[in-house]
Design brief:
single chain, alpha/beta, FAD/NAD(P)-binding domain, 2 domains, 5-stranded parallel sheet, globular, NAD(P)H dehydrogenase (quinone) activity, flavoprotein, oxidoreductase
């Protein structure tokens, strides 16, 4: 039994922290105070965001309420943004609040948009992260089309990874339901093939699907300039647009590195197999912000979800002064990509297939995940 109260501070309301908070609520740890620091009172579940863009899910259905979650965990909620760490004095420095002291710290803040070096892009393009700001702009697009359904609309999307492809399909699906006129979408990708992190069947199938859906593909086109109403590529191609969305590779904020935590070249926090900082034993990290030195994982939501329970276990063991347990990420993972029309494409290793049944499976998996936060109970 611990004599003095220990302070556990969680920075960020990502998937891993949401799961850990729920588990701390189910089985509270005596003599431990928990504080969550998050910029927003709710956090989006990445698995349902494409469905939200397509109009299938409401905000409440795909956002986790962090205030009610912290109440369930008997934790304190601070709505603020962490901007630095004082590791020597064990304090979190916030933008608008007093420093928050900790004995044990965990960071799960996701990722931020990669620095966009293309002239005009920061001014005229809409980045998909941070997600709340992106959704605010997307809802403005929907409102504009709803108010003027007879007006043609043209969207540009830069980035042909899974995120850009899924966004193209879901945006088209939603806008076609409310527009009485033409909806044009142009997808720009610097490589010759889409979705480089997926197998050959999935890459070819998605390219054929986009073409059938009338989405204009611009492969091997590197956007080099953005103006208010058009993009220009290195090849000389110029395409006009009404709204431009930027879906390229994300990066990490620089404050963890500035604070003294060990990071890689793109500022992601380096952690060992226990999800523990390789430079500071009192700091843990999970989700997109963390990079395992022995098993680097793709920056995908499935890993943030899978890391939730191992993170909780090791935070608890650390607070109890016990030995930690290594987390082993799976080598293969099932990726379900919604097509915006009630179907989904599965990607598993070298295999892939498409079916409406896969959308029902994805919907069931996602709703099941969210139900654990909508029905907070120690008996759940």
């Amino acid at each position: 039994m611990m004599n003095n109260q220990q302070k556990l501070v969680l920075i960020g309301g990502g998937h891993s922290h949401a799961i850990a908070l729920r588990l701390f609520g189910i089985e509270p740890l005596p003599n431990v105070s928990i504080t969550l620091i998050s910029e927003a009172p709710d956090t989006p579940y990445s698995g349902m965001l494409p469905g939200h863009v397509a109009g299938f899910y409401t905000h409440a259905e795909c956002f986790i309420n962090l205030r009610s979650l912290t109440e369930f965990a008997q934790a304190e909620f601070i709505c603020d943004r962490a901007i630095n760490l004082d590791l020597e004095n064990k304090q979190v420095i916030c933008a608008n609040s007093q420093p928050v002291s900790f004995d044990l710290l965990s960071i799960d803040i996701g990722s931020t948009p990669a620095t966009i070096s293309v002239p005009g892009a920061n001014e005229y393009a809409i980045a998909v992260k941070p997600i709340p700001k992106f959704l605010q702009e997307w809802h403005r697009v929907i409102e504009s089309v709803t108010n003027q359904p007879e007006q043609p609309i043209c969207l540009g999307i830069v980035g042909g990874g899974a995120g850009g492809v899924e966004l193209s399909l879901t945006m088209q699906s939603h806008l076609q339901k409310i527009s009485q006129n033409t909806v044009k979408i142009h997808l720009f990708h610097r490589d010759e093939e889409l979705m480089p992190n997926h197998n050959r069947w999935v890459r070819r199938h998605m390219q054929q699907l986009l073409t059938r859906r009338g989405i204009h593909l611009h492969l091997a086109e590197n956007v080099c300039e953005v103006q208010r109403e058009f993009v220009k590529c290195e090849s000389g191609l110029i395409v006009e647009f009404d709204y431009l969305f930027w879906v390229t590779q994300a990066s990490a904020p620089d404050w963890p590195k500035i604070s003294g935590l060990a990071t890689n070249e793109t500022n992601f926090i380096l952690v060992n197999d226990n999800l523990q900082s390789v430079s500071h034993s009192q700091v843990f990290a999970a989700g997109d912000i963390a990079t395992l030195i022995n098993n680097p994982c793709p920056k995908a939501g499935v890993f943030a979800v899978r890391q939730g329970k191992p993170l909780y276990d090791n935070l608890r063991l650390k607070l109890e002064g016990k030995s930690l347990k290594p987390y082993q990420p799976q080598k293969k993972y099932l990726s379900l990509i919604g097509t915006g029309d009630g179907s989904a494409v599965a990607s598993w290793g070298q295999f892939g297939w498409e079916s409406p049944l896969l959308w029902y499976l994805k919907d069931w998996i996602d709703r099941r995940f969210m139900n654990q936060f909508n029905r907070l109970s120690s008996d759940f």
